[in-house]
Amino acid sequence: MIKIKELHRRWKEFRLAGIDLEIADGEYFVILGPTGAGKTLLLELIAGFYRPDGGDIYIGDKNVTGLPPEKRNIGFLYQDYSLFPHMNAAKNIEFGMRMRGIKDSDTVKKIAGYLNIGHLLHRYSQTLSGGEQQRVALARVLVINPDILLLDEPLSALDPGTQDSTRNILKSIHSDSNLTVIHVTHDQTEARILADRIAIMMDGRIVQVGTPDEVFDRPINDEVAHFVGVENVLKGKVTTSSNGISMLDIGGTMLEAVSECVAGDTVYACLRPENITLGTTGIKSSARNTYEGRLVEMERMGALVRVKVDCGFLLNAFVTNQSAGELGLMYGETVVVSFKASAVHVV
Amino acid sequence: MIKIKELHRRWKEFRLAGIDLEIADGEYFVILGPTGAGKTLLLELIAGFYRPDGGDIYIGDKNVTGLPPEKRNIGFLYQDYSLFPHMNAAKNIEFGMRMRGIKDSDTVKKIAGYLNIGHLLHRYSQTLSGGEQQRVALARVLVINPDILLLDEPLSALDPGTQDSTRNILKSIHSDSNLTVIHVTHDQTEARILADRIAIMMDGRIVQVGTPDEVFDRPINDEVAHFVGVENVLKGKVTTSSNGISMLDIGGTMLEAVSECVAGDTVYACLRPENITLGTTGIKSSARNTYEGRLVEMERMGALVRVKVDCGFLLNAFVTNQSAGELGLMYGETVVVSFKASAVHVV
Amino acid sequence: MGFLTKQKSANNRRTDPLMLLFYILSLVLLLFVFVVIANMIIGQVMTDLSGLVDAASSKPVLKSIFLSLYAGFLATMISLLLGVPTAYILARKNFTGKRFVESMLDVPVVIPHTVAGIALLTVFGANGLLGAPLQPYIQFRDAMPGIVVAMLFVSAPYLTNSAREGFKNVDPKLENVARSLGAPLWKTFAIVTLPLASRHLLIGSIMCWARAISEFGAVVMIAYYPMIGPTLIYDRYLSQGLSASRPIAVLLILVTLVIFITVRILSAGWRVYDKD
Amino acid sequence: MGFLTKQKSANNRRTDPLMLLFYILSLVLLLFVFVVIANMIIGQVMTDLSGLVDAASSKPVLKSIFLSLYAGFLATMISLLLGVPTAYILARKNFTGKRFVESMLDVPVVIPHTVAGIALLTVFGANGLLGAPLQPYIQFRDAMPGIVVAMLFVSAPYLTNSAREGFKNVDPKLENVARSLGAPLWKTFAIVTLPLASRHLLIGSIMCWARAISEFGAVVMIAYYPMIGPTLIYDRYLSQGLSASRPIAVLLILVTLVIFITVRILSAGWRVYDKD
């Protein structure tokens, strides 16, 4: 267990003001917040790269506040991967073992195989793509068997395709090893998909801590509500997939998406609220996904109305004021929502 | 008239290979091409900042190839505005007149009023926003009454809102002054909206020259077709606008959009093909725009089919293969297209 | 738990032994420089203030210091005249042999000072390549022109390098825009380029001046007389010993430090027009 | 219309008069430096090759050049020992008075050379602050330690500045990662930081060495004997004239140029690990 008590620190323009957190063993804990909230600084304090101005950090029962980073057994992954540019991938991965006086090329090979970088071991970071560097950096960190893995915006420097695959790697590392992971990001979708629990951090403070559902569906105040936004992220299982069209089972409801995923996978379907059409009767159109649901929330936002529809799962949608009037949308009514398979982004 | 004959030039990684162009007086001519095509280099050669390795440039009947830039009377606007940082806005604007030995603060005031920067005249560029810098740079160029205005990606460094207003400024400058404008960009929408004629430039060569309709609807080869893409850009007139909802008249057909524009304006409605729903019968839903049209083109693209529907205006839409099959979409059939007012971006 | 306890627990980490060693070694370096300079100045002021006052009112001393400053000033002016165009060309143009030209211009920085003196004598001495034909018109040996030429040789690279840096920081697009607005090249250079590079030019000039004033080896070989400050210090030291030359050294170093501190303040404060 | 005509019409634009003036002025500067150096070397080789050969086989000459190189080497080693830790602290830490420390460390660059000599004598002379107590153990006046101390004083800033630049180019995140992987600070410094800054360290060392070898004023005041190269040149010039000292100068400049060209090649080629 990691316990952080009343942590204070000023550094350049950033300021951490009394951070309190408890993170359970084996938990995937995401710290979500906008740029400039001080998330990376918090991570670096946990790793011991800086000393706090005040407060304590416990790992297990031990107060590590005074320990140098090399005695904390924490794996740290920076956003830019920070591979040693004067060593090839193999030397980078071996670095931690070398520091412990261990010579074990089998472990390197095993972990390189696990992360699918066996063919890159002789290459230098300048010749590797972002995703490849990321995997080498992960191998370098995993080889030391850290108690805790700290991830600083691990996906934000990657292109969308690599983001998806790296997210899956992080998930499987966590489930395979039962590591405690603290993952810092500004991306809500990332947080929702990966986190066991999420802490919302704003302006140097922890504002809310909870499960993804708690944080996204019951934000503690306006600021958090505004920040976590209204993106629809639905968890589901792929039942069939062919010709680039997949059927997803979202809690018993079937959803069709344009995607190359594999039957049996657990995936997330992302859907922008402006791509959801509301109606009052079922219709036949090229919108492949049509559901009946109950309108559980309506909120005016300028010329638009945000409506929340419960159709087995919760969906946020935008409609114009006129539409809302003409369709006679009302709280508690039954409505028909529809969206095109090509509007669903599967991750 | 500007005539460019067999222009050659190598410079760093760029290479212009035999450029031939003719641009009529008072024409708004857009050079559209991907990054690295050599568009800016061509513009700089026309302005005389570099000498061509071979070829000639005529302005009117005069061969200006050997003239230094200060004798060409050409206005040049760089992407980053390039205001003189050691002069305030007024001094920047006066620069051209000062070089001609003219002292005329009335003209400065008039042009500053025209571009709505009268209140910024004492400020230095570091304290101005991108849009403000852009307008000061425009004033600086217009004050010298250039024969030709060269614009190097004038909108790409601006945020979307400022882009829209600056585009309108460019349009009105052109129509008010009947200047010849050569505008370089990689943005198709920008090109379509502003251009009298478009030249497609790729890899140091001019590939196609024509009106926007010619270039976008009849691209000369696959490469151009791929580059100009399938974005829907519709020209129309605003008939009514209230509560953030506008009605647009697109060649006789009415279209509803979420937009703050003013009745009477001529605008462009942009619409992504994946946000258009196809059906076979009319439906009542929150999709405010529903039209009957004839299917004039179908093309398979992987899991999707791109269809072109003529419903008074041409629309590109994406549907899945399954949809196309289930709906029985066929060339020449009558279909119903619909899209939400919030999916229309008006510029 | 009070705030104090927390402060304590956060700071119970000791300074790393390597950093401690580093602090000690860097303190040695700092003290070496500081003690050498401070000891001379303070020693003079404490033990022999009257010597300093005498030196400051002695005509030969003032004359030699003035000569140092004046000859250095002339060398700096010539450096500006020749170095600014050179710097502009190096900042804007690419040509074959550019690296050779840059290297050649930097050679005086690393050349041993008396070697520079010999080399200058071979060219500007009475029998030298230029000295001989110019003999009827201008005298370099033991004369002001010799001092200026020696100073120019060793100090010009400082100005050229700083000016080149300054011109490189001026975006050529600004010059292009000025041209298209109707400014010929010389007006563009005078109204746009020079003002924007002015900080680097000023700092380069002051560095050039300081370097010119500091030179001894090259100057003493081509012109022992008239004596510049560093030569007078050497001469007094040989003829009358340390206590006679130290006051002059203190005076000269105070002048130098004023120049140096000016550079530091300029280079720290005046960053408005820098690209980054 | 053929290609040739086109080429012509494209190039009918004349070079701007200002650029022409600039080309001429920069040519003057380049020729000044080039002629001074080339004239000495070529003149020696052409008119008095035997003198050069004699000098190259004369024991006192070789001894003095060797002493220059050796004392310069020792000064560079001490600069490394003291300058590398200083540079690392200046690159990584912020503290009040940092600007004063940086300025103080740079003072030797601008100080007149004989002033530095006087200042060093005040501290390391027989009656000096350190010279007096150390008298029984180590002699600075007219001895090797004096030469090394003088060279160290004027050359250490070159190494410190270059090393600081090098350490600044090493991303501290790499050091953080190495620490979290289990490397204590000293191993991190040795395995990550030093190798990545090695190009700057090497260039700084060579610049430091070249500057140490070039010094005359400060060295001659604290130690006329044993004679380093620049002092021997001066001595021969005073006692036997230009033609006796020039061969030594040519030998010394050749040594210096080799060092200098090495720096140029290193600084151009070896950019692999640089941040930008």
Provide an overview of this structure.
The complex is a heterotetramer, with two copies of chain A (347 residues) and two copies of chain C (276 residues). In chain A, 25% of the residues lie in helices and 37% in strands. In chain A, a hairpin with a 2-residue loop joins strand 12 (245-250) and strand 13. Chain A is an alpha+beta fold. Chain A has nine helices and 20 strands. Chain A folds into two domains: 2-222, 3-Layer(aba) Sandwich (Rossmann fold); 273-339, OB fold (Dihydrolipoamide Acetyltransferase, E2P) (Beta Barrel). Chain C is mainly alpha-helical and 276 residues long. Chain C has one domain: Orthogonal Bundle (MetI-like fold). Helix content of chain C is 80%, strand content 0%. Chain C has 14 helices and no strands. In chain C, helix 9 runs antiparallel to helix 10 (185-196). Chain C is globular. The relative contact order of chain C is 0.13. At the C-D interface, helix 2, helix 4, helix 5, helix 6 and helix 8 of C face helix 2, helix 4, helix 5, helix 6 and helix 8 of D.
Summarize the structure.
Chain A is an alpha+beta fold. Chain A is 25% helix and 37% strand.
Give the key terms.
heterotetramer; A: 347 residues; alpha+beta; Rossmann fold; OB fold (Dihydrolipoamide Acetyltransferase, E2P); 2 domains; 6-stranded mixed β-sheet; 5-stranded antiparallel β-sheet; 9 helices; 20 strands; 25% helix; C: 276 residues; mainly alpha; MetI-like fold; disordered N terminus; disordered C terminus
